[in-house]
Structures are given as C-alpha cells and as structure tokens.
Amino acid sequence: MIQVRGLTKSYGKQKVLGHIDLQLQKGEVTAILGPSGSGKTTLLRCLNFLEKPNAGEIAIGDVTVNCKGAGKRDIHKLRQKTAMVFQNYHLFKHKTALENVMEGLVVVQKLLKADARARSQLMLDKVGLADKQDAYPSQLSGGQQQRVGIARALALNPEVVLFDEPTSALDPERVGEVLEVIRSIAREGITMIIVTHEMAFARDVSNHVVFMDDGAIVEEGPPQELFGSPKEERTRQFLKRMTQEWSYTI
Amino acid sequence: MKLDPGFIYDAFLQLLSALPMTLLLTGVPAAGGLLIGTGVAFIRHYRVRGLHLIVAGYVAFIRGTPALMHLFLVYFGSPVIIDFFARKLGLDFNSASIPILYYVFLAFSLTAGAYLSEFIRAGLLAVDKGQVEAAYAVGMTALQAFRRIVLPQALAVSLPNMTNVVIGLLHGSTLAFTVTVLEVFGKANIVANQNWKYFEAFIAAAILYWGITILLETASARLEKRINRYHRGGVA
Ligand SMILES: Nc1ncnc2c1ncn2[C@@H]1O[C@H](COP(=O)(O)OP(=O)(O)OP(=O)(O)O)[C@@H](O)[C@H]1O
Ligand SMILES: [Mg+2]
C-alpha cells in the first residue's frame, strides 16, 4: 500500500505541489491526468526522491519517510521500494539491454550474476525483446528502448512502478507496442502509477484515476466515474479538450 | 663532422638499457595522475564543499606553470616539508633516505593529474543526467552511480585526450634527466659524450621515443574502438 500525506514541493518561491494526499492499494493501477505544468511529473519524482519534497510523509510498503528530515538512508530505502520508467527511457548507454536490466539486481540487490541474468532474460522475454538482449541502446528503436526500461523496472520486483509519460517521446507507430506491454503487466497485478496523456489507455488500464491541476488533486475515483461523470468543472473541461484533440489526431 | 649511420644502431641498443626507467617514468605518473585526476574531477563536478575551490586552485596553478617547474618545486620543496614535520613529530626520519625517483613520480603525477582532471571533467559533462537519475531510481548510491554508470562513459569520451597526456608524460620523462635520474634521454647524453657522436646518439633516442609513441597511439585507437562499441548503433 502507498500512502502520501501532506506532500508539498516548491521551487524557490513557486509552489508546485500543495499538500497532496493520496492513497493507493496494492495491485492497483493509478493513472494521473492533468494539464501541462500541473505537477504530475513532480509528484511522481517526489515519490522516489528524485525531487526532494519540502514537507509531508510518504509510506510505501513497510517504509515510512518523513520528507522534512529525510536522510540518505531513508531515501535509499524508499528507492528500493520503487522503480521508475522515464519519458526518455534513460537506459545506461554503455550497457546492453540485458546488462541494463541486470545492473540493479547485481549492484543494489546483490544477486548472484547467474541469477540476475536468468531473471533479466525472463523480463526481456516478457516485454518481447528476448532476441535483443545483446543490443546496445543505440541499436534499438525508441519503443524497444522503452520496453527495456520497463523490463529494468520490473526486474527489481518493486512495490510500485512509476511511469512518467512512457509513450510521449515515441513515434506514433511505436506507441501501441509499449502500451500493450504495460497493459499486460497491469493484468499481473503489479502496482503502478502512470502519468499519461493517452486518455483511452488510462481509461481501460487503470483502476483509479487522479486528476491534477495547479499542483493539487482536483478529483479522483474509478475510471468509469471520472471519465463518465466527472464532478468538477475543471475535470470536465480538461477531458473535453483532450478527447477533442484525440479525435483530431485520428 | 661526418655522420656514422652504423653508430645509430649501436647507440640504439645501448639506450634500451634505460628504456625500463623511461617506461616507469611514464606508467607510474599515468596511474597516479589518473587517480588524482578522477578524484579532482569528481570533487569539481559535484562541487564537494570545502574541497572544490582548493582543487580548482591546484589545477589552475599546474596548468599555468611549466612541468619542469613542478619537478623542481617538489624535488627541492618536499624534503624541507618532510623534515619539518619529522622534527615536529619527533620522528627519527630524514628525507635523504627517500629515493629521488619518488619525488619525480610525485611531481609528474601532480602535473598529469591536473590535465587529466580537465579531460575527465569534460567526459563527466557528456553523460546525461537522466542516466544518473535512472541509476538512483534502481536504488544505487551516488558513489555506485558514479563508478558504474558515469565514470566508464566519461573515460570512454576522454580516452583520446588521455592518450595525449600519456604521450606527454613519455616525452616529459626526459625532464627527469635534470635531477639525475637515468632514463633514455640521460643515457643518450652519456653515450654521446663517451663516443663524441652526439647527432647519432640523439637520432637513436628520437627513433625510440617516436616508436613508443606510435605504439601508444595504436593501442589507444584499438582500445577506443572496443570501448566505444556501444556508440555504433543503427543496426536494428
Ligand atoms: N527544476 C525545476 N525548477 C523550477 N521549476 C520547475 C522545475 N521542474 C518543474 N518546475 C515547475 O513545476 C511545475 C510543475 O511541473 P511538472 O513537470 O511537474 O508538470 P507536469 O504536470 O508533469 O507537466 P507536463 O504534462 O508538461 O509534463 C511547472 O510549473 C514547472 O515549470
Ligand atoms: Mg511531466
């Protein structure tokens, strides 16, 4: 279970997140929606301390961290409970696909090399890249790189996988293959938080949808409710605009 | 004066006896410089508090003064410092018992370290921040991320420049001649003096230096190709 209480974050004087409360159940897929600049990425990055929150409390599994006095140890523990899939993949460029997936298992989780390799091959197979294990990132397409990124995150067996717009840097014809992989791991009951602008995908893959605007959660609930009958005016406007854009691109 | 081509060959053979010293004077400072350079680059890249201004001063000083100067400063300066502290601490130790060679190693390492640090620093900047964040996200500590993700890529980027520093060390090892360490150049002097054949002896020495330089360049080019495998790309 993941629980966020009173999370706030400012850059200098600019308040980016104001008192966020959030609670997610194990095995749940949460989609975070919201206009550009609403703080979605920042919220996600606060959860694994890639950004340091100013205040609040984050509890993931059996680790609870008070953001204000968080030390290196706390941060390290929290990061071992989470994994992240980045918008721009951020694969280790000097390592092959397989080595990318193995890296965290060997260095952080101290698995034996042979075990790490076996587990990593399994993960690459899961994302459909068993035949690319020896390729370097520069030899892979964006979609393939992102699938390696997903395998790297899954291999760690984290409490929660954080996705920050996993498809928005991809060519349109590559989006489908990555969404399909995410969909299939969602079915396995892996806890995920996904920031996305893919409305249709959010709607059918998630169990819980959070709509953010201006650094705050405006509305949250099951996808049928949030998409079907949003309560807040801001949510309605956002969804209307997004579905319009969506139909234009078709 | 007539050139005696046969003596070039004789001199060359005699110079080989001093080659191990020249290689030592290149290799040890290369390793020492790499250590210092990596440390300095790390401190400056991450702006380690309290240290990064000091090491910036070190780099500026070394780059602003000749290598021969560093050698003399260390050679004449460190015995004074060592003896001062030995007396202060009441140790029964005299700097005279330290071989000259060690001062030369130290001086050359300090020279190389400053230049290497600049090249390594440029290499560090070439590794995008995203990869470091990815390393943190899988749970690595800052040091693990540096050692396993950033440093290998930074070194690969700076390899051509580092080769030039090592070649500079090889050529600069001739400076050790001035503090009576017997390496190839010093040996060439002796051979020349003994036989009154200066031109031949120094031609032989030049051929030797040039040969090793070519070897170093070839080795580096090969290594570069191997290390940079991952840059090729575009296959899939
Ligand atoms: N490093 C930073 N320094 C200063 N301001 C920042 C920084 N990172 C983000 N911000 C600001 O914080 C706000 C929230 O940014 P964030 O990236 O979280 O938005 P987002 O919801 O992810 O937007 P998008 O949909 O465009 O990705 C924005 O106003 C942004 O300008
Ligand atoms: Mg964002």
Count of runs of 4 or more consecutive helical residues of chain A:
9
Strand-residue proportion of chain B: under 5%
Q: How many domain modules of chain B?
A: 2
CATH top level of the largest domain in chain B? Mainly Alpha
Subcellular location (chain B): Cell membrane
Family (chain B): Belongs to the binding-protein-dependent transport system permease family.
Keywords (chain B): Cell membrane, Membrane, Transmembrane, Transmembrane helix, Transport
Protein name (chain B): L-cystine transport system permease protein
Question: Can you tag this structure with a few keywords?
Answer:
heterodimer, A: 250 residues, alpha/beta, 6-stranded mixed beta sheet, 4-stranded antiparallel beta sheet, globular, B: 236 residues, mainly alpha, MetI-like fold, 9 helices, 77% helix, 0% strand, flat, binds adenosine-5'-triphosphate, binds magnesium ion, P-loop_NTPase (chain A), L-cystine transport system ATP-binding protein (chain A), hydrolase activity (chain A), EC 3.6.3.- (chain A), ATP-binding (chain A)
Would you kindly provide a written description of the structure presented here, covering whatever features stand out?
The complex is a heterodimer of chains A (250) and B (236). With 250 residues, chain A is an alpha/beta fold. Chain A has nine helices and ten strands. Chain A has helices at residues 40-47, 72-81, 97-107, 113-126, 142-155, 172-187, 199-205, 223-228, 233-249; strands at residues 2-11, 14-24, 29-33, 55-60, 63-66, 82-85, 160-164, 192-195, 208-213, 216-221. In chain A, the strands form two sheets. A six-stranded mixed beta sheet of chain A has the order 6-7-8-3-9-10, with helices on both faces. Chain A has a four-stranded antiparallel beta sheet with strand order 2-1-4-5, with helices on one face. Chain A is globular. The mean pLDDT of chain A is 93. With 236 residues, chain B is mostly helical. Chain B has two domains: 1-18 and 182-228; 26-174, Orthogonal Bundle (MetI-like fold), CATH 1.10.3720. Chain B has nine helices and no strands. Chain B has helices at residues 5-15, 19-45, 52-64, 67-88, 100-126, 129-137, 142-172, 184-195, 198-227. In chain B, helix 1 crosses helix 9 (198-227) and helix 2 runs antiparallel to helix 7. The longest helix of chain B has 31 residues, at 142-172. The radius of gyration of chain B is 22 Å and the shape is flat. At the A-B interface, helix 2, strand 6, helix 3 and helix 5 of A face helix 6 and helix 7 of B. Chain A: This is L-cystine transport system ATP-binding protein. Chain A: Keywords: ATP-binding, Cell membrane, Hydrolase, Membrane, Nucleotide-binding, Transport. Chain A: Pfam families: ABC_tran. Chain A: It is a peripheral membrane protein. Chain A: Its main location: membrane. Chain B: Belongs to the binding-protein-dependent transport system permease family.
